[in-house]
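Protein Entry — a single chain follows
Fields — amino acid sequence, structure tokens
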Amino acid sequence: MDSVSIVAACSILSAGLAMGLGAIGPAIGEGLGLARALAAIAQQPDESNTIVRTLFVGMAMVESTAIYCLVVAIIILFANPFWNYVIQQAGG
């Protein structure tokens, strides 16, 4: 296996890990936030507008973590700085 193949395999593996681990955390956080918001609405139905507004802001912030992980995975796959170095070393 040459060095270009190793860099390609490591890039694909790390992008998959970044996206997989980056999606697990926000999914758990959103699930917990939604469960707590539904419990709060069930206990205090008059405050549902405030709870829902706060829930949406919180979910947007949690979702931004997954989006950051997606951006990092895309950078690892398509703009990896090691590609140019390895290609220069392999091609001469």
About this structure: The mean pLDDT is 89. Residues 25 and 88 are 38 Å apart (CA to CA). The radius of gyration is 21 Å. The longest helix spans residues 3-43.
